[in-house]
Amino acid sequence: MPVRTPVPQFPIPPSEYDEKYFAEIIRSFSVFLEQYRNPETRLQVYDNSGSVIVEAQINTTSGKTEVTLTNTPTVTAFTDVDHLLIDDGNIVKKITPNDLGTRTLLATTTISDDSSIAFTTLSSTYNTYVIEFEEIKTETDGVYLTAYVGTSGSADTGSNYAQSLTARGFNGSAFLFARNVALTGSNWFINTSDTSADLGTGTGENFSGSMSIFSANSTSSYKLMTGMTANYGDTPHIAYNVLCGAYKSTSAINYFRLQASADNLASGKVKLYGIK
Question: Which of 5, 62, 148, 218 sees the fewest Cβ atoms within 10 Å?
Fold first, then answer.
């Protein structure tokens, strides 16, 4: 009976492919070969016309576990890829994009002196959402950012937010440590409200990071949130925030909002991704 070789795990495809993504596939494949060392194992990526656009195979002549990219990536969009084929000499495993999971960019908002930004495109299509924050700057020193979700097309500002946030940093002379915790809060803190690690408006100061919301469509579970954000800010200091939270509702959410604790958001970008 043939020995069944486990199928390697690959990164989630982005909405657009580039050489960096295929390099990550090859790296993952190299790790797989290093573990199982089957010289007959090969990997191929096919386009919709049936042509091989990426191929990798163990180098049997060198006696080493080496993977060579034998075709130059030519695809530019997710829809150009039909499937991956894993063949170890015994079993051929076809993996479609749906097997790998997809991350789709749904919306991008460029901040320009806004009191808040909101996404209203959350729907039943995706159960997990990722929100990315890029170079966000505020109009006022000493503020922090908060996030809201909602189930009826607007923000829930009630007491349905649970959170455990830990912030650590350094201000040049001392280490910083702060926490924001609550079981009945009115929002989620995206960075700590502690004045030792809040946001600033000085040259180069900004805030970036990401957060994920899970079970967005569930009608039986609370919506859990995790994330990691960082800022170089007021004082000055460098700090990071580890986010963990729950939205205590069993209704599907369809709304997300970000705002500062005071005054407006000055600039930056916020992106919303859906993951199947």
Answer: 62
